[in-house]
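re: that chain from earlier
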Amino acid sequence: MIRALIMILLFIYALLAVPLKSYWQPFVIMSVIPFGFVGAVIGHLITGTSLSILSFFGMMVVMGVVVNDSLVMITKFNDLRLRGENLQISLVQAGGSRFRAIFLTTVTTVCGLMPLLFEKSEQAQYLIPAALSIAWGELFATPVTLLIVPVLINIGNDLRFFKNMILQRFNIPIEALK
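^ sequence. v structure.
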């Protein structure tokens, strides 16, 4: 199970790195994945449902949804930067313009899972752990996505600034590292 998770994470990273043409941005996008897992576990604890293999399948679904939410925001950010917008303005506009899409993805998914979560039939009992993982994972990861992605992009920009400052201090041409 752990090997499969690592392989999935590497595959997601590769799929993100190629179109984004960045090594840093896939890490930013994937940084919200653990929060989806935490939300799923919290949901299981609150409802008193034990974790099962279907819970982990639900966590895999959450992984895809939160990566998509982050990708939507970073794509908009990159588009704004290509147009020549300032970093801070790009972050605010990307968060503001994609808030509705990210929020509605979470709300519609959770609302769609509500009937299953409240179902009492025996057949539904097998699917409820997966639905719990998806609903609680998204509810927890969505606000984190809206906050942590812009913060990490800003941190990455600060690190790039400090790297360039150090290189200039020691008279190392920036092009030598490219």
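The radius of gyration is 19 Å.
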